[in-house]
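Try it yourself: sequence plus WT7, in.
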Amino acid sequence: MESSKSQNIETILKENRHFDPSPSFREKAIWGDEQAFERLRAQADANPEAFWEGAAEDIHWYRRWSKVLDWNAPYAKWFVGAETNASYNCLDRHLKAGKGGKKALIWEGEDGTQVTWTYQDLYDHVCQLTNALEKDLHLKKGDTAAIYLPLTPQAIVAMLACARIGVTHSVIFAGFASHAIRDRVNDADCKVIFTTDVTYRRGQPLDLKSIVEDAVKETPGVKNVVVLRRLKTTTLGDKQLDWEKLVQPHAKTHEAPPIDTEHPLFMLYTSGTTGKPKGIVHSTGGYLVQVMRTAKWVFDLNEKDIYWCTADIGWVTGHSYIVYGMLSQAATCVIFEGALNFPHGGRIWELIDRHKVTILYTAPTAIRAFMRGGDDVPRKYSLASLRLLGSVGEPINPEAWMWYYREIGKSKCPIVDTWWQTETGGMLIAPVPGVTSLKPGSATKPFPGIRADVVNEEGKSCAPGEGGYLVLTHPWPAMLRGIHNNPERYQESYWSKYPGIYFTGDGANKDADGYFWIKGRVDDVLNVSGHRLGTMEIESALVSHPSVAEAAVVGRPDDLKGQAVVAFVILKDGTDLTATSAIRDSLKKHVVQEIGSIARPDEIFLTKSLPKTRSGKIMRRILKDLAAGKQVSGDTTTLENPGLVEIIE
Ligand code: WT7
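Structure, out:
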């Protein structure tokens, strides 16, 4: 962390702008009284359990808890002994409150097709599928199902149908390749996979079903593949069931059973520092309470809002802030199955105007890309419906923040920069827009009831401005309950650096006002376009190529993507080196095939050696410098082969 210290201090000195909530925003906001909010924050800080217990009143419980928190580090149980149902909370509750006619989902396809579903429609679809899962597929509480679908209403139906009967879902991003599906499905022991015959990427059809067919050759536990047929011509093979035919005979009602609050609602795989993705397990009740409360206050959500989160349901953002956090509050959500800049650079702004979006939640990588496209593009649109902007996935640089604020928010929309992780389930550090003064580039302060700190190597709190590790010093309701099938890794990844304290893996500093400035990962994990990729995972993919002997992957700062993927590869002896560009292409293709296009290396260096310590660890610091085109800095005395990296080309 030494080297980032001076950088952090510099950032603070440079960035001293702040933006107070405007009187007009404050007036209408859920929280507009700063003093009252600070009193609440102090109370919540003194007694987080009491705060979350209050928040729990927002959801329906079949049975109440005997105790708010049972903390046996590193395992937490929240709302001990209580029963609820996530699907009931997202559907039945609203119908009972007379909101069946309210719009739940406004879906737009890449070709411009639009479908709007009310809460009643969504309920009908979910109940029909749930009945089919119970009666025809014989799924029951404790089973797991994989969802490999693009961002469609049906993907959400599948999630809520599983949740309704305690079938733990594992959504697999529809950009992952068949090997990635196979590994995730086997690790989670899924009995069923939901998929579709076609989605479109920049106008090109992509057949997800055939990718699943490849995967299921090696997933012995899968009994059925439920296929959403969008093309009349698609024929179905072995184990495959037509979604429409499956649900058609079933009733559009279903009584949601009480589910233990600690029952795993879903699993979601994310990258870590070792090769295999981790199946992050989330609970039901605690998760729901936190995503609901944070969505309500951070997005200042009201009855009339039209909310658009541009994330896919394949990532945690889609789970928490499209499905569970928003539908549980009867919000109207826009969902879009397409690229934000296709077929033209203003597609995102066109959607905002068409659907009168009031809250936009997107990623810095997208903001930077639009910024690059020039101010003229968004200026062709009104964007007058917007009242609040959000950012998530990686640090937002002050320049992008200012552009977003000025060009998109027209200097009247607060920006909520929200820090959280797949593991945290919900937001932890984020502004509450009617009361928090904003500083461009800072996620501001911990949400009430959350205890976070920045500590040094020894675990001592850092002084203001001093760089250190971001940690969480008290459990929170939506925290992960473990890594599926791997308690050792759970302990090791998050709880071993400082006993009883959650290690986030992010570097940060806190300024004199208590604002957090999060700098990104300090471990061997890359953040590419707001998505976490394990360097080990990409290295394993490279090494599985027949010509590769050894590989090391590092990140390089990238204006657009946050980080670019750079690989250093030692080829096997005897590889024909006359066509190095063909080798590079083949390596890139191989990674895409093994993991998916998000992991495609941006640059590959072919080398004869890798810098290693005497104990054989690759010195990534050196590779990072090389990848960034910098002079290798710092101490190299522990280097085993000081000749450094001999780049062939
Ligand atoms: C990592 C988590 C949170 C859902 C999407 C990504 C980085 C995320 C911010 C932010 C600075 C951020 C961190 C974090 N990150 N949000 N507002 N400011 N960094 O989830 O894939 O689990 O990645 O994304 O490095 O640890 P994820």
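One thing you can check immediately is this: The first helix runs from residue 2 to 14.
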